[in-house]
Specification:
alpha+beta; 5-stranded antiparallel sheet; 5 strands
Length: about 180
């Protein structure tokens, strides 16, 4: 695999963002080759996405369709208090469950105003914008990945596309591990 080039000195704007997106996808792909533990790959993916999209935090969930349960497998940039709230709510109505069931990613300008979100938990962290993407492979949904920003209206379609591409890579890892187990 070829290593992505460094950004040109003084590179700004769209060119720098494109470079950061390529770097994030490269890091996720490299993690897939080095790790077979889905939680480690999910954490590497989250860190890469957070950096590339200039986000504040993120979560990753696996989904067990037999038990119809989501399980938190990775978190970055959130407090334990927030995680406790998420754990209580995740298998009820939630954005992650909505995305898993609909198999469609969502970009939300302000989750503190979205009835599908855990508004109380979002306020604990001051989270506003989010992108939630299902981890899809073939006809199966294996979980969801979420990134957050404390600024409302922070994400655009290029951020959404990057999270979608990263989710595909992470889903391949989850699928590989399930096939081996």
């Amino acid at each position: 695999m070829q290593t992505p080039r460094q950004p040109r000195p003084g590179q700004t704007g769209r060119g720098l963002k494109t470079h950061m997106f390529r770097q994030a996808l490269y890091e996720i792909s490299r993690s897939l080759q080095l790790n077979l533990d889905p939680s480690i790959v999910a954490l590497h993916g989250l860190r890469s996405l957070i950096k590339a999209t200039e986000s504040d935090s993120g979560l990753a969930f696996s989904y067990n369709p037999v038990a119809d349960q989501l399980e938190l497998v990775a978190a970055e940039g959130v407090t334990s208090r927030y995680l406790e709230e998420v754990e209580k709510l995740i298998n009820g109505p939630s954005l992650a469950r909505y995305v898993v069931e609909s198999r469609q990613g969502v970009l939300i300008e302000d989750i503190q105003k979205d009835a599908r979100s855990a508004i109380k938990a979002s306020k604990i962290e001051g989270l506003r914008s989010t992108i939630v993407m299902p981890l899809l492979i073939e006809d199966r949904c294996l979980g969801a990945i979420v990134i957050f920003c404390r600024e409302a209206g922070r994400y655009d379609s290029s951020d959404f596309d990057l999270v979608s591409a990263a989710a595909s890579n992470i889903a391949r890892c989850f699928f590989k591990v399930a096939a081996i187990a």
